[in-house]
Design a protein that fits this description.
Blueprint (H helix, E strand, L loop, with lengths): L6 E11 L5 E23 L7 E10 L10 E4 L5 E8 L10 E8 L1
Antiparallel strand pairs: 1-2, 1-4, 2-3, 3-6, 4-5, 5-6
Length: 108
């Protein structure tokens, strides 16, 4: 169960080669109509006493068992916004299935 679902998304995975021979992202659909929750988040990196750096990113949640991996791309089916998944972490509970957590960033 997702705490706060923000929309339905399509998950893409894989790469392909274009006419120039370059490796590019492939639009191979892994799953569609996946309910995910996304929210803005920040973290401080570096030495907080001398040069702290605030990094903005997007934290996401998915139901347990959702096939989402690092480097997958997700697309909001309503707005068309695309994101790249940076990391995926399982839930922290040892007694029950909790939501998967992932970090991602928006791309054009």
């Amino acid at each position: 169960m997702i705490g706060r679902a923000t929309g339905r998304f399509t998950i893409y995975r894989g790469t392909t080669t274009n006419d120039s021979g370059d490796t590019i992202d492939g639009d191979y659909i892994v799953a569609s109509d996946v309910v995910l929750g996304l929210r803005n988040a920040t973290r401080v990196e570096g030495d907080p006493t001398t040069a702290p750096r605030t990094v903005r990113y997007i934290r996401g949640t998915a139901t347990p068992g959702t096939d989402i991996r690092a480097q997958d791309r997700i697309k909001d089916q309503d707005s068309g916004l695309r994101y790249v998944v940076d990391t995926v972490e399982p839930g922290l509970s040892s007694t029950r299935n909790t939501d998967l957590r992932f970090d991602c960033h928006r791309v054009n």
